[in-house]
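Objective 1.3, modelling of assemblies. Example input:
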Amino acid sequence: DVKVTQSSRYLVKRTGEKVFLECVQDMDHENMFWYRQDPGLGLRLIYFSYDVKMKEKGDIPEGYSVSREKKERFSLILESASTNQTSMYLCASSLLRGRARGQETQYFGPGTRLLVL
Amino acid sequence: SQQGEEDPQALSIQEGENATMNCSYKTSINNLQWYRQNSGRGLVHLILIRSNEREKHSGRLRVTLDTSKKSSSLLITASRAADTASYFCATGFNTDKLIFGTGTRLQVFP
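Predicted structure (tokens):
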């Protein structure tokens, strides 16, 4: 079974702090994703990576950056946390299918609930 | 850019009843997927239906897809209390990214 783990289930940070959210998958998937989930808004894609050191902006990248130095690990960085970044953060991974081949199933981690005070 | 919109937003039923959730989307798709999320947890993939398929079954789940109406439905038959969760549809086209809807919250009472 695919396993996607996230470094913390709950996190409390102060405004202005630099925050690192880590995600690790153990199935050699090429694609990794970071989403945030807010009530009434569903899941929104922050960043996407299809290979080591490769990244692509999602729908809401402002205020975030990412790092993918190893295939199994994808980090989300909040450079200077703000209260409007209080949210549930979900990491996912999938096999690379590429254009015109359709989307592969995504496997999700348990989520990190971040509170920024 | 949210593509999938689920309907209803919330649904409450008794155990043993069937639950039907609908998803509408706006653009072309390669396939449509349904995911379940238990409270405060990550999403779990339930079923995938390709754009050239009209119906698919998996256990107590039945998914239909009507590409002419840009809509899909998820039917859970003989529901159980353990089916209580939020259900999301997800679509994509010619990329590895998925676009998720806002979800339907299903409550099944014992």
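Chain B has a mean pLDDT of 92.
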